[in-house]
Write a structure and sequence with these properties.
Glutaredoxin; Glutathione S-transferase Yfyf (Class Pi), Chain A, domain 2; 4-stranded antiparallel beta sheet; Glutathione S-transferase; Glutathione_S-Trfase_N
Length: 383
């Protein structure tokens, strides 16, 4: 009998380890080894032997009976546990005689629900609006199908416009006038605290930053994954990498190059060279991918292509970049330009046609070149 009890103690220890995860969710966990004596007196080590596997039995009145099985036993867990012949208050069930006959132990467990921690309850109460108060959160989850797009004729403004058109969404456009600094007015700061375009409202919900807008639109409105990939896939993260490449590389570097080449108040040979050289380096990175693939991520046209295209297309126009040096990028750019949705997007928020824009940029660069001549004359006169 001592050896049987020792075996039961070992089994009880094993059960404590197995139920460690479950014990985090209960207030108390109790184990008892109940000795019963079958009607027959032969040996049965299968029930109490710690080397044999066990399985959970049947839940009875808040208690869980755990029976032990021999690997070679043909009976199921349910039939084994129901064949025991011991009544017990913890399980509220009477067990019939086990097919084996030596007195052995049945281990039982009782688990009471653990109450929610007081801290969690307080946190919930703080989040809930009080009597007479209204929550400032939307009552319904997006999408709201009430889109208003705030934009202007810039590369960042073009990016979400292409996606809006590709998805065929209905949306209202509000063109922002840079000449009057409309993007810095209080009403617009409420939509985008950064005072930049673009911005999007869907009902009363706001989204700002062009990349965030594109991700919102694909999450909410591109349920068929036409222009994105399933979250968690390799192609999804490849797409995100190229999207961030545009936002952290192509966009900032080309923006600075455009500024020094056509819009700076004074001519800066260093600024022009520095940022045009960096832009060309980034074009070379795109060429590595596009020389052997049609699209930046996976095998289809995605928001990564839309975002990079919106900036790259200005390379020849603003910076006089020779696209024959980047044949893969050039083919990719022309392929996207031919899409009907892209042609429509170019007109969203644009005060000038494509030809008028080219003419304006040519004039701006000519003025900058004139400033270069003036700077050189002033430098030579000082010498």
């Amino acid at each position: 009998m001592g050896s049987v009890r020792a075996a039961a103690e070992q089994v009880r220890g094993a059960m404590v380890g197995i139920d460690r995860a479950a014990s985090r969710q209960v207030q108390s966990l109790a184990y008892e080894a109940v000795l019963f004596r079958p009607r027959h007196g032969t040996t049965c080590w299968a029930c109490a032997g710690p080397a044999f596997r066990f399985r959970k039995g049947i839940i009875r009145s808040g208690g869980v009976a755990l029976g032990l099985m021999n690997r070679r036993s043909v009976s199921t867990t349910a039939t084994t546990s129901s064949s025991f012949s011991v009544p017990h208050t913890l399980t509220n069930t009477g067990h019939h005689t086990h097919p084996h006959s030596r007195p052995c132990f049945v281990l039982t467990r009782v688990a009471a629900p653990r109450p929610q921690p007081q801290q969690s309850q307080k946190r919930y109460l703080r989040l809930a609006p009080g009597p007479g108060q209204k929550s400032d959160r939307p009552k319904m989850a997006p999408p709201f199908n009430d889109l208003k797009y705030y934009t202007a004729a810039t590369p960042n403004g073009l990016k979400p416009a292409i996606l809006l058109e590709e998805l065929g969404l209905k949306y209202e456009t509000k063109s922002i006038d840079f000449r009057s600094n409309e993007q810095k007015e209080p009403w617009f700061i409420e939509i985008n605290p950064n005072g930049r375009i673009p911005a999007l409202k869907d009902g009363e919900m706001r989204v700002f930053e062009s990349g965030a807008i594109m991700l919102y639109l694909t999450d909410m409105y591109d349920k068929g994954k036409q222009f994105t990939y399933e979250l968690g896939t390799e192609d999804y993260y490849e797409m995100m990498s190229w999207l961030m490449f545009q936002m952290g590389g192509i966009g900032p570097m080309m923006g600075q190059a455009n500024h020094f080449r056509a819009m700076a108040p004074v001519y800066s040979a260093y600024g022009i060279k520095r940022y045009i050289d960096e832009t060309k380096r980034l074009f070379s990175v795109l060429e590595i991918r596009l020389s052997k693939a049609d699209w930046l991520a996976g095998d289809k046209y995605t928001i990564a292509d839309m975002a990079n295209f919106s900036w790259v297309r200005g390379g020849p126009m603003f910076l006089d970049i020779d696209m024959t040096e980047y044949p893969g990028v050039d083919k990719w750019m022309k392929r996207i330009s031919e899409r009907p949705a892209v042609d429509k997007a170019k007109k969203v928020g644009a005060a000038l046609s494509e030809d008028q824009l080219k003419e304006m940029i040519t004039g701006m660069k000519a003025k900058m070149d004139a400033k270069k001549g003036t700077a050189e004359e002033e430098g030579s006169s000082k010498v």
